[in-house]
Amino acid sequence: LQYLREPQYLIKFVFVVYPTQDLMLHSGLPPVQPWPLGVATYRGFPLHIPTENATGPSPRQGRRRYLCNYQATIYKGSSREAALAALEASGFVDRCFVNARREWLASESPAQAQAYQEVLLNSEYTIAPAGLSTECYRFYEAFASGSTPIIEDTPKDCDYDPLALLKSLNAPAIFVRSWSELPAILKAASAQTPQKLNAQRRRVVAWYGRFK
Length: 212
Known about the structure:
This protein is α/β, with parallel strands linked by helices. 36% of the residues lie in helices and 16% in strands. The strands form 2 sheets. The protein has a 5-stranded parallel sheet, with helices on both faces. Strands 1-2 form a two-stranded parallel ribbon. The chain is globular, with a radius of gyration of 18 Å. The chain starts with a helix and ends with a helix. The mean pLDDT is 88.
């Protein structure tokens, strides 16, 4: 913090990945903003997805294969368990792709990475509960794929809002305070016409193109 406090360093803006609460809330410091994670390139997720792939299928071709997807490592006692339970109780789990595992993998095979990307490109919505932190790569990977993320809006152990940047830029996401909201969200989503879903995918992709 000394470089922010001492004027001779002339620091006007600071961008930090996973900023700490003390850094974000310390009074008298220059504006500090979180640097968005973006997509997980270290796992092979592409920086660019062709627009026709990210926005498809066309209204005439119908909906995507999955209403939603839930792909996550489940930590015991975490809200990820609550998200999975809400999905299973929603009545729509058979229309969604679910891959819930109990152990985090630091790396994936090319085949696993490709399968993950294909699921996003074939899902209208992506369920994105908080993990060890509120923000995760899945937000941005869903945006890039034209899949609307359903994001847990519950800051973890901090007084500032880690999602403030996305909210201030009107990110095309659905923010939930409780996973008990999920069944109603999926019910409304299932009633959308192919035309509306296609328009929604185009808005998501266009927004992410400007954002990144």
